[in-house]
Amino acid sequence: MEEKRLVERFNDVFVKTAPILENVKKGFFAQKIETIQENRVAFRELLLSRVAFVEQIVGAKEKTEVERYYITLLPIFQRIALAMENLISKMETKVEMKILFSEKALAEIRELYGIMEIQFRDTKDYITTKNPVLKANIQDAWEKVYRLIDEYAMIHQDRLIAGLCMPKASYLYLDMIDSIKRISRELFDFSEKA
């Protein structure tokens, strides 16, 4: 299989996932459970629609160099998808159970999510262009997310100790920012190997 076709496969999933991420964010901040659920279903359907293609390449007895390269990217891609699924799930739980977050926690999630979306877009564009500026931006985004999450986790710990955050909200908040951290890390890894 030719490299252009395989690159298009990855790029297509990134292109179709970008609006899903945006809609999940809108549903989360507007407290619209239906929006989150619809986009969770859309994300799962998108991934399932690619299974046959992946199985065809993985199952082939003889693989071209390009196909072997594609297979090495699959685990990273799967980890991105799993972290995204977890993030969407936790956002859905928060909205469905009407768990309150402080304005500070919401602002932190909004900031981290925004950085992740830009990094996601840059990764999508890097797949097709191999532009070194985009690759540097992806790494910078990862470093910023990592630094901010460490900072926010420490501040959050202080909020929890002071009783400003409830344990149920704490678990969801920490899981959400951890999912964003994992997505960001895997996007960086993906760009390193792509």
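That was protein one. Protein two is written in the same sequence-then-structure order:
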Amino acid sequence: MGYLEIVHSPPDGSLPALVLDAVLRQSLVAVRSLGRAGIAVHVAESAAGAPAFASRWCADRIVLPDLVTDPGAYVDRILELCSRLGHPVVIASHDGTIDALRSRRAEVEQVAELALAPEAAMSAAVDKRSTLAVAEQLGLHIPPGVTVSEPTDAAAAVDAIGVPVVIKPAVSWVDGRTAAWRAAPMLARERDQAIGQVSRLTGDGVAALLQRWLPGAREAVSTLYANGSMAAIFAQRAERMSPLLGGTSVLRESIPVPDDIGGMSVRLIRELSLEGYAEVEFRRDADGRPFLMEINPRLSASVEIAVRSGVDFPLLLYRWAASLPLGAPPGYRVGRRMRFLGGDIAWLKEALRDPAHPDAPPPKTAIGTFAAEFARFPGYDFWDARDPAPAAVVASHVARSLPPRIARALRHRLRDADLVGEAT
């Protein structure tokens, strides 16, 4: 599938860009967007072989020290790079990278333009407790829940919410007592399981947020807020997530901005003064009422659907950070679909392994809907006919991850849809 926007002319006097976290999907999207705009894009990651390193628009491939084991050396190397590159725009998309940069933000901003919201807004956005408190003051629906800080309070909290219960760390990047790690929400369906999960989080010094599970659609509103105005707004619906409960959006579709969550997102972003890019996530209940889940104040993994629909958020983010004009808010095409195939395979595996999960369809339905999506010809993350090498980097891993019985069923489905012949 093609892109709506034309290839841009390079901005006058444009700064180079340093895109970190080259292993992530959104980093590859940023490299391509900025490269098409004529910007010199330097790309960095803690390991070789990242997909974005293979992009035709990658001007330089830099392997950094390990973020988790030596964050100090990681940031030191970024500071050196920025000094050498001549005050680049730095785009980071991983929670751990952002946490490390924020810990030395003053140093980073002496040698680069950091494409992150101001510190006060970032602090409020990355802490789910602060975000939900502001949202509640604004009259947004938030899931019924409680926060637990001590293991001894786990049982009472679980009993107050009931099961199934969603358990989230208060912050996504956890610098725990034993190690630093990115924490994802968990679903507990049994009381003892829930108590154990809460106790493990709080025992590592992490506050746990317990919320009632909601059964409805997952929708998100992405924004680029700058100088008191919305420079861009976009909405999508996630049809499948991996893990099942929530995390990576592996199949999504562009939708018109809904009146309810669109207005809620704008009010929340304005109240927080959350400049730059942000994605505001909602989940609806059985009656269709939207409940705020969280805000991601960084380029989200699902951002490519916005770019392919006509809203080039990475380029807008770069222009905002570089203090360049943003132009009028762009429109976009609805009904575009994007698929992260590796994540969709992970979704299918989990759905078959745990059919009792409340977000899992019946096994036959899971296989059928997974296979049927090939016939709809969605866009695929990593794949771009003008820049095919990054897709080749990940293709062999995706192929190896298919269990044999799923591969056989998939081949039958594809033959039924006349998409492939007798197969390989």
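Residues 71-85 form the longest helix (15 residues). Keep this in mind for the problem set.
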